[in-house]
Write a structure and sequence with these properties.
Layout lengths: L13 H10 L22 E6 L3 E3 L7 H6 L8 E5 L7 E3 L7 H5 L7 H9 L5 E2 L2 E5 L8 H18 L3 E5 L2
Parallel strand pairs: 1-5, 1-6, 1-7
Antiparallel strand pairs: 2-4, 3-6
C-alpha cells in the first residue's frame, strides 16, 4: 500500500494558505471525537451526507458571505438542508475560503450524491437519506457555535429521519 499525503491547503491558494496556516493551532483544541460504531451492515443503512462547502439549495437562504468578508478568520456557523434530488443546477456554493469552481463543475467534489446513489444501486448501501446537510466548515479558531448549536440540530434532524450513518464530505 502506498502512503498518501493529503494537502489540506490544495485549493486555498498561496495567500490564503499562508494566512490561515499561521492563524490555526498545530494541535486541535477540542475534546476527542465521540465515534459511534455502526450497528448494522452498510447494505442496510440509510446514509446522509454532510458537506463543509457552504452549500445551499438555490431557493434557500444562502450562507452569510458578508459576515465572512467582514470576519475573514470566521465563517457562518449555521447549516442548510440539501434535498436528495439536488443537482449542480439546484445548488449554490457560498464560501470565500475555497474555490467553488470545482463544485460548479462537479457537485460530487463537495456532495457526492451521485456516488452515494451508485452505491445504493450496487447494493453496497441500503438507502439514500431524503435530506443531506451542509455547513461552512471554515470556522477559524472558534467552532463553538457549530459544535453547540448547529451540530446537535443536524444530528436531531438525522435521527428524526431515521439516518443510520452520516458521511462527512470535507472540502
Amino acid at each position: 500500500m502506498t502512503d498518501h499525503i493529503v494537502d489540506p491547503w490544495r485549493f486555498a491558494g498561496s495567500t490564503l494558505t499562508r494566512m490561515l496556516s499561521a492563524a490555526l493551532p498545530d494541535e486541535p483544541n477540542h475534546p476527542p471525537i465521540p465515534w459511534t460504531p455502526v450497528g448494522k451492515p452498510l447494505s442496510e443503512c440509510k446514509v446522509a451526507l454532510l458537506s463543509t462547502a457552504g452549500l445551499s439549495m438555490r431557493d434557500d437562504e444562502p450562507f452569510d458571505m458578508e459576515y465572512e468578508r467582514q470576519n475573514p478568520t470566521r465563517g457562518d456557523s449555521s447549516w442548510r438542508r440539501i434535498r436528495s434530488d439536488a443537482t449542480a443546477d439546484s445548488i449554490v456554493a457560498n464560501h470565500l475560503h475555497i474555490d467553488t469552481g470545482f463544485i460548479e463543475r462537479d457537485l460530487n467534489v463537495a456532495l457526492p450524491l451521485d456516488r452515494l446513489r451508485e452505491a445504493v444501486a450496487e447494493g453496497a448501501v441500503g438507502a439514500v437519506a431524503d435530506t443531506h446537510y451542509s455547513i461552512m466548515g471554515f470556522q477559524g479558531n472558534d467552532s463553538s457555535d457549530l459544535v453547540e448549536k448547529s451540530a446537535p440540530e443536524i444530528a436531531a434532524s438525522m435521527r428524526n429521519e431515521g439516518v443510520d450513518l452520516a458521511l462527512l464530505a470535507p472540502v
